[in-house]
Amino acid sequence: MHERLSGIRHTRLRFQCSPSHTESALYPFIRHLEYAAGFRPDDEPERRLDKLEALLGQAVKDVRESAALLAPLLSLPAAERYGAIELTAEQRSERTLKVLIDQLLGLAAKEPVLYILEDAHWIDPTTRELVTQTLGRIGDARVLVLVTYRPEFQSDWARHPQVTALTLSRLSRGQGTEVVRAAGGETLSQEVVARILRRADGVPLYIEELTRSIIEAGSTVGDTEIPESLQASLLARLDRLGPEAKEIGQIAAVIGREFGTDLLSVVATQPREIVDSALQRLVGAQIVLPGGSSQDGAYAFRHALIQDAAYQSLLLSRRRQIHQDIAHALEQKFPEVAESQPDLVAQHYTAAELPEQAIPFWQQAGERASAGFAYREPVAHFEQALRLARALPESVERSRQILGLLLLLGETRAQFNRIQEALETFKDAAELARIGGSPADLARAALGVEEAEVMIDRPERDSAGLLEAALTALGEEKTPLRCRVVSRLGQALFALGEFERGTVLMREASELARRLGDARALFDALICEWTTTAGHPRSAREFPELRRNCEDTIAAAEETGEPYLIGRALARAMPAFLEMGDIAGFEAFVTRLCELGERDQSSTSQEYAAFSFSTVREILHGDLGEAERFAEKALVAAHYIHGEVAHGVYGVQMFTIRREQGRLAEVAPLFRRFLDENPQDAAWRPGLALIASDLGFEQPARKAFEEIAATGFAFPIDAKRNLTLSYLAEVCARLGDADRAERLYELLLPYRDVALVVPVATVCCGSNARYLGMLAGVMGDWAAAEEHFEAALVMDERLRAWPWLAHTKYEFASALLARGRARDRGRAETLLAEAAASAERIGMPALQKQIRALHDLRC
Questions:
Q1: Which residues contact 325 (CB under 8 A, 6 or more apart)?
Q2: What is the pTM of this model?
Q3: Which end of the chain is more exposed for a tag (fewer CB within 10 A), N or C?
Q4: Tens digits of per-residue pLDDT, 178-214?
Q5: How many C-beta atoms surround the C-beta of residue 393 within 10 A?
């Protein structure tokens, strides 16, 4: 490739994966940036930042922002020059990968780019994700990506239409002969060449090495001894170079594919001139090549298999000793390397079978990777540390070490929304903490369990017991940690039905947090209070307190300065403002949340919430096409959050949209089958009853409704309760069931002052008063029905809830006509005409059909 492109102007980018860095995030790109920027060992950090900016200036527009994101990869201090970047790990990850791809596209805009990734079978997970995103973004850019890998490597890169997979077969006899000649074997006899080719079996590297081995042995005729393997060939060649060169080559192989002269000299305990002389002999034999990286005195083995052969030639005991010497040298003589690449030190101590020395470095590597942006890498580092720690002899220190690693692993998994895995890890940590950990460790584990149970909508029984134990262990000292434990315990107990004690604890936590002046503790307490009120009806008298709670929660989140917490606070406030009918406040919060997501460039919970609340807004205002677009975007963004919840939200949103579009028939067979296969699934039955009613299946609707009514409409007081009651109210009204209408009316009446909102960011269906009006009409209480419908008109108008206002006008008109008073006819006609106009404008064929049916009935 290089020879063919030698006469064509282009930029070449080369990235080399390493078997020693399969869990080091973006290792090939870090090494390339160091090389491309021209870093030298004696460069001060400021000088390196200057060089990085100069490199980025060739391809990106915002050099400072790009440098601020890439500098931590290169272990450069960025905050002093660029200021702190307040991003979550996921946000930093996405933006860093985007910068690297933008740099590539910027270079390609100037001239064609040859982008080479070597040995992808050793690729680290973050580099793999970067390549995947790169293939998705380069489109028609002038970029040729060339990736080499062994056959066992698997990826989905070939799914891109512009990607072609090429299998490189073993060389033919003629091609092998060319390689022999190119390796200096022009004088070898045909018989020797034939024996080389038979032994090498078409593998180019073997052909080259066997050829050089024979040439160096000084024999070119038929009785020449052909080495049995690559390792035998390399050992013979090393022996001919002399003992010093052989030892230096073997030590270098233990260091890695690339190695520096300084480290090599320290480990070999040889003067620099002896090491340099040995390296020159190795270079002359083409075993190693100079210039492995940007550093002076850097070398690399010509091929990874040559390094491996040299490594395997060492006795196991000698190999372990060299690994130990390397790790010790990195710690003592090269602290900057140990600090920037703790995983490298950990690998050498692990290979030396010194787990007690390796564990702290694995932990440091995990913490460093987690603080950056990677997910799989820190998890792998913590898991490796755990494996080593668990293999140590039983001791108090061992248990404490395992506990600390479990907490770090759990927090990393939670940070990246691997909630189920985090839950199991925190439970393991809690068990250890109960036995021999500190009160703070137990509290940390218990808080992790509780947070995970809330995220996956699981009863908080495990966390309640752990939080009780943690609270006892912490004692009476008033600290932010104790405050957080109290608030979460209150939430857990409330969710388990211990309403009185749960409420008392959450109020205690709020008061303590305010006294301590701790914004994070106060945020937790206020969020817990809000969570426990989800699904509970509110009266208009409670609106001022609710508004204050929302404002206090947002203020506490803003005081922490954490974008994630600010996003959560906004997400909690928005449904509350919708419930109160404050559309201006809701719209303002949606705008702020969207701005927050755009500023952070994230595809995490903030972006998901922004898209999902935008769906709520568009449904509310009647732009159903735009609502569907946002719902789809939210589902894509949900890749990084708890998928089950996100899919449930999407399902309710799409059901609401399709229902108004008159397209429920498209999914009727699916729901029928689901009902047949899950006859006892109570959670689905109210929705299924409504679908059957909408589609005109009266008998299945009546059957489902009767079965639900037989339970006394016993639904838990949770976030779904209001929506469930509204579904049943509609079915009851369609069936004309006056007896059941009275019970449903009693259950729904506490919601009369608020809009029907399904938190956190699912749907708002206008005023609850509409459903009360429908039930009152079935009961024949026309005065109550009229009062509720008038209230619904006001609320829906205030919310600009145009689809639901159209429904309210239709239902109100139907009730007026059913009452049968002549003086109501004019009002009913006006309401029907307005409803019909709105239904046509918005595109609500189902409602239009109902209006026509009502006209036909009157005629």
A1: 267
A2: 0.69
A3: C
A4: 999 998 888 888 888 888 888 888 889 888 888 888 8
A5: 6
